[in-house]
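Predict structure. Input: Inositol polyphosphate-related phosphatase domain-containing protein, 259 residues.
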Amino acid sequence: MGNFNTIQAAKRRRWKSVDLMTNKNPTNATHEGIKIVNADNRCDFSTSSDLCICIVTWNMNGKHSVGGCGGIIGRKKGAVAMRINYKGIRMVFISCHLSAHARNVEERNSQCRHISHSVFSKHRSPYSRPDQVTIWLGDLNYRIQGIKTFPARNLIKKDLHKLLTGKDQLLQEAERGQIFNGYCEGTLTFKPTYKYNVGSSNYDTSYKVRVPSWTDRILFKIEDPKEINATLHCYESLDDIYSSDHKPVRAHLCLKLSR
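Output follows.
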């Protein structure tokens, strides 16, 4: 079943054509940003796909932590990766918890690059074949910025939260060419998943009064669409779960090898 890698986020990361170790893009580099895709109807697990994957990310807001990956990317923050080969589809899953707070955008960007370098380092075995599918999920902790909490909540209350996507740090940083080159994400049709009062679907009423944000995300990347066709069948939050200040996010992705 391929290799299993537990990673501790290295200190540098190199993309294919962008020098992100210095946060600078060479003039001839291109960055696709994050491609937004619409979710198709729910999959019926038909034989038309070689593999259907249900992916869930949820920050359970537990009282205990397994540690901070040696302190490299921060206390109580870290990442884990797993490689799987299923029916000839070579996949890597990356789950991470990045630094909190709206002001720490560059720190999160750096952590993404560190994690990526650990997983996709050129120092991997020369006998290993490149991954065809990458699925990256977790509490990425990118926030909504440029709007105060109560105007943002009013938009959400009126089901106008799609207007907040233009203020989403993750999409902004990808568009700037800093992170997630060539990844895809479903349309953010669901409400921001953080921060809730535990035990309810009411946004934070503590003294912190956080701006609601889509901190919990699932991204995927197909290295060669000519080899593998990917269909996203759902991308949604699970709003009926109340035991955390985050709402879980679920995606349903189906893959088919081109033959």
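Residues 105-120 form the longest helix (16 residues).
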